[in-house]
Write a sequence for this structure.
């Protein structure tokens, strides 16, 4: 099979190896003292940023905390959870609903092909500034919502984001996809993680000097799992309860 322009031939994939990564990923509550090698962390973070994301605007940031003093303060801000206190590294996963404008410009500057397609240039220069901009006090967002309601009577239209609150949701969805890539990458390297939502966001943001509009999606504890790192057997609800075929 010939590869298309800008792509490589698809490699063979071993589904059983992938299944092992997914099935052995657990939220680890206690880690050993073993550090995570720099090369492993860098590879995992690179794989995280390959996650699918809205308009390729990549509205995320990762703050890797490994220095003992700052890590101890961050663990305290994570309510003293064992996962936070014993992790080799704490990674603050941040959604940035405010980065879309700069990233739209960068998407054009970093376009990987020799020729920039007109439709791509139009999207990032004209469509994105309208689609994601909510305007002063959200006025533009309200106008877009009204227009969407009117036009949507006769044909399908994008429904949002229509407010700064919806922009936060927009950014968080893409950032959560990147976080999942990160957790699976750590597992594939033989390390583990624990995504934590229990934290004082105000203190976490202050510790990492995060601008006010940044959202802490989760704090990810990472390291080598301890023997007592898993607290109970994994279980999920019956798939028939959650999956619907229409």
């Amino acid at each position: 099979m010939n590869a298309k322009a800008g792509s490589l031939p698809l490699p063979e994939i071993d589904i059983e190896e992938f299944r092992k990564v997914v099935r052995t990923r657990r939220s680890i509550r206690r880690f050993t003292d073993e550090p995570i090698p720099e090369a492993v962390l860098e590879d995992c973070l690179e794989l995280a940023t390959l996650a699918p994301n809205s308009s390729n605007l990549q509205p995320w940031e990762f703050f890797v905390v490994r220095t003992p003093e700052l890590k101890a303060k961050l663990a305290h801000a994570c309510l003293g959870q064992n996962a936070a206190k014993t992790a080799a590294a704490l990674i603050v996963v941040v959604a940035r609903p405010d980065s879309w404008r700069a990233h739209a410009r960068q998407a054009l500057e970093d376009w990987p092909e020799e020729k920039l397609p007109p439709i791509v240039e139009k999207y990032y220069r004209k469509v994105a500034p309208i689609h994601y901009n909510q305007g002063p006090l959200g006025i533009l967002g309200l106008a877009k919502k009204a227009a969407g309601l009117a036009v949507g009577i006769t044909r399908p239209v994008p429904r949002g984001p229509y407010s700064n609150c919806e922009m936060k949701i927009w950014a968080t969805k893409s950032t959560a996809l990147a976080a999942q890539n990160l957790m699976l990458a750590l597992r594939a390297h033989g390390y583990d993680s624990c995504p934590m939502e229990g934290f004082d966001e105000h203190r976490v943001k202050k510790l990492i000097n995060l601008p006010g509009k940044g959202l802490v999606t989760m704090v990810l504890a990472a390291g080598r799992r301890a023997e007592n790192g898993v607290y109970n057997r994994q279980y999920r609800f019956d798939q028939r309860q959650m999956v619907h075929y229409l």
About this structure: The radius of gyration is 21 Å. Residues 164-188 form the longest helix (25 residues).
